[in-house]
Design a protein that fits this description.
Blueprint lengths: L4 E5 L2 H11 L3 E5 L5 E2 L19 E2 L4 H13 L2 E4 L5 H14 L16 H9 L6 H28 L8 H19 L9 E4 L9 E4 L2 E2 L2 E2 L8 H11 L1
Parallel strand pairs: 1-2, 1-5
Antiparallel strand pairs: 3-4, 6-7, 8-9
Helix pairs in contact: 3-5
Length: 240
């Protein structure tokens, strides 16, 4: 009996092309992107216990895709996770492995750097295990987005416009702008003077050079060391 091989990619267009390259011994299906995510109706992250454990759930509207993948997985002798070769793709493969009961210790993760016959066959000949560090990176990004955005986005809807969203990037940018604005408003103007001179150099054909008053009687001048015009004139008189 011929061995049944299931290959899961993200895009239906890629699935069709890759299927042609691999031949009849391989069934190639598309996940259509992510199949699981944090729920939209609640935080979905345990903030109090279990180290911010996420509550992943099947994405609504993906029921038929998930059902087809699970049926095909049960009929297959080998399952290859061939989602995109990036952080998101690695996470999608991890979610698929969780849902389909794929052993993540086995070398069942395949990446295609180019969708050509040689590129596809090279990828199939060099499987590896799922890179859990890449998966952790994607999860950290997603969870941080949820923790920050889930609280800030409703505020934006009330104050700015419905439908806006904010996450780990926008919220920090807004905070930086706010802090800077508060610094500007709290700034108090203070008059100060500096004394500059154009000094003649000794020697033939030596050009004059600019200089700035640095210290008086061995004491370094601070930025606001000369508070007004009168003080500046007294210093100039003493220098003369």
């Amino acid at each position: 009996m011929a061995k049944s091989n299931l290959v899961i990619v993200e895009s239906p267009a890629k699935a069709k092309t890759i299927g042609k390259y691999l031949g009849p011994d391989y069934k190639v299906l598309a996940s259509m992107g992510h199949v699981r995510d944090l729920p939209k109706s609640k935080m979905g992250v345990d903030l109090e216990h279990n180290d911010f454990e996420p509550d992943y759930q099947p994405i609504k509207g993906k029921e038929e895709v998930i059902d087809d993948l699970m049926k095909a997985a049960k009929k297959s002798d080998a399952i290859y996770l061939a989602t995109d070769p990036d952080r998101e793709g690695e996470a999608i493969s991890w979610h698929l492995a969780q849902m389909l009961g794929v052993d993540m210790k086995e070398q069942n993760r395949v990446t295609f750097n180019e969708i050509t016959k040689s590129g596809v066959h090279y990828g199939m000949e060099h499987p590896r295990t799922i890179d859990e560090k890449l998966v952790d990176a994607q999860q950290a990004r997603r969870i941080l987005d949820r923790i920050v955005g889930y609280k800030i986005s409703p505020f934006l809807w009330r104050k700015v416009r419905k439908g806006l969203s904010a996450g780990r990037v926008q919220s920090v940018a807004v905070r930086i702008i706010l802090d800077r604005e508060e610094e500007i408003r709290a700034f108090k103007q203070q008059e100060y003077w500096s004394i500059d001179a154009l000094l003649a150099a000794k020697g033939y054909a030596k050009k004059p050079f600019p200089a700035k008053l640095y210290s008086i009687d061995g004491k370094k001048l601070e930025l606001a060391g000369i508070p007004d015009e009168e003080s500046a004139k007294k210093i100039i008189e003493s220098l003369d």
